[in-house]
Amino acid sequence: MKLQFLGAARQVTGSQYYVQADGAKLLVDCGMYQERDFLARNWDTSPVRPREIDAVLLTHAHIDHCGLVPKLVQEGLRCPIYATWASAELAAVVLRDSAHIQAEDAAFKQKRHRKEGREGKHPIKPLYTIKDVDRTLPLLEGVPYNDSIHVKDGVSAVFHDAGHILGSAMIEINVRANGRARRLIFSGDIGQRDRPILRDPSVFSEADYVVMESTYGDRDHGENGDVESQLEEVIRSTVKAGGNVVIPTFAIERAQELIFHMSRMQRSGRLPSLPVFLDSPMAAEVTEIFRRHRDYFDEETLGLIAAGESPLGFPGLQIVRTQEQSMAINHRKEPAVIMATSGMCTAGRIKHHLAHNIWRPESTILFVGYQANGTLGRQIVDGSNEVRIHGRNLMVRARIAQIHGFSGHADRAGLLAWLGAFQKPPRQLFLTHGEAEQALALATQIGNDKGWNVMVPEYQETVELA
């Protein structure tokens, strides 16, 4: 067996792993890079031969885990792409939206560069088109949680609930050859326990090899107070100042979780009377997918539905679909809450709302998710006085706020607790999906506390598995 790390190695995005086992060639995830320092990798030809791949296994439908699949199809991928039923539906929406955003951004850059009389750093064309996505979607095959899926003779896979976003999975790969069996587990993104809507993440008692995320490997989320109290304070203080609350929002999970909390706040009278815009056609589609997959919900959410409550909607919530409707938001004079994608401010409509609000002292930019190193969102969170949006340098005068309780990732304590379920150490633990500092800090702690063999792989590093 061989395992090669083709992404999310000492950085957060671009999740992709190449597994060769008993003649089978598998990809686990095929994600897009979002950190500025690694964007060029999105344009590189795949280091594996797509036509030789027997199957792609997707942990979930976030763009940094599935966003490069159409590019591989463009390069010759023709194998089944396995994902949970919800992930398969979500991936279709995410990939179409990605192709649309890339086409929009390419056209905008072409127009700006013509006006400025210069060439950009990267090719001004989409990574892939909607036609590439249309060739990708028939390859998607939905699978249930906890069933063994035959991948190739001697190789099977099981998808377990990861509790991260709707349909997210931890993938267990079982290989049987020459009378021996080996189990390899990819954690995907491990969710927090006791979060709304979804069930808690699965745990395991044993495995030969484990590939685990380490996004928050060096820190805990801490006691940040009640999420709804913090959200109420930000909204009320911004309304009093006469500004807008602009929330960079991940279309999957974070948007629905915000709606869940605001719905509950409105029922209890804690949400001020003001329009709340969800400016993302994709988030609107995703919310409908949530409603179709109630079997993935936790008991609390199912209880609300049984009681006749609407956890994914409330009066005052306005779903924005067209560009014209989106542009009209920024002509309003009254305060509003504006949720828009993308969550790390790397593309999409959020950049337009930031351009209209980041220079306004009365507005608040509220972050409710992880901001990867090198993204526009990270620059803002880290306190940059000036940022560049759509070719213009803008001063940061808006209030910058964060609510950490929304994180979809387990923190250091959560990751250690997940490992604590193993009754014996794996032969090797690999830490990925975290910046080098976070991954190395967690590796040191696990090595010191547990005495396990822990490795933080480099990009494109290959490891022989016994």
If you had to describe this structure to a student in words, what would you say it looks like?
The protein is α/β, with parallel strands linked by helices and 466 residues long. It folds into 2 domains: 2-219 and 408-464, Ribonuclease Z/Hydroxyacylglutathione hydrolase-like (Metallo-beta-lactamase, Chain A), CATH 3.60.15.10; 227-406, Rossmann fold (3-Layer(aba) Sandwich), CATH 3.40.50. It contains 13 helices and 22 strands. The strands form 4 sheets. It has a 7-stranded mixed β-sheet. It has a 7-stranded mixed β-sheet with strand order 7-8-9-10-11-20-21, covered by helices on one side. A 6-stranded parallel β-sheet has the order 14-13-15-12-16-19, with helices on both faces. Helix 3 packs antiparallel against helix 7 (281-292). The protein is globular, with a radius of gyration of 22 Å. The mean pLDDT is 92.
Q: Can you tag this structure with a few keywords?
A:
466 residues, alpha/beta, Metallo-beta-lactamase, Chain A, Rossmann fold, seven-stranded mixed β-sheet, 21% strand, globular
Please name the CATH topology of the largest domain. Answer: Metallo-beta-lactamase, Chain A
Second-tier CATH architecture of the largest domain = 4-Layer Sandwich
In total, the number of strands is 22
The average pLDDT value, as a whole number, equals 92
Distance between the termini: 7 Å
Number of structurally distinct domains: 2
Strand order of the largest sheet: 6-5-4-3-2-1-22
Structural class: alpha/beta
Low-confidence stretches: none
Q: Count of DSSP helices?
A: 13
Helix content: 25-40%
The biggest sheet, with number of strands, parallel, antiparallel or mixed sense and barrel status, is:
7 strands, mixed
Query: What portion of residues belong to β-strands?
Result: 15-25%
The dominant shape is globular
Name of the CATH class of the largest domain = Alpha Beta
Radius of gyration: 22 Å
- CATH H level, superfamily name of the largest domain: Ribonuclease Z/Hydroxyacylglutathione hydrolase-like
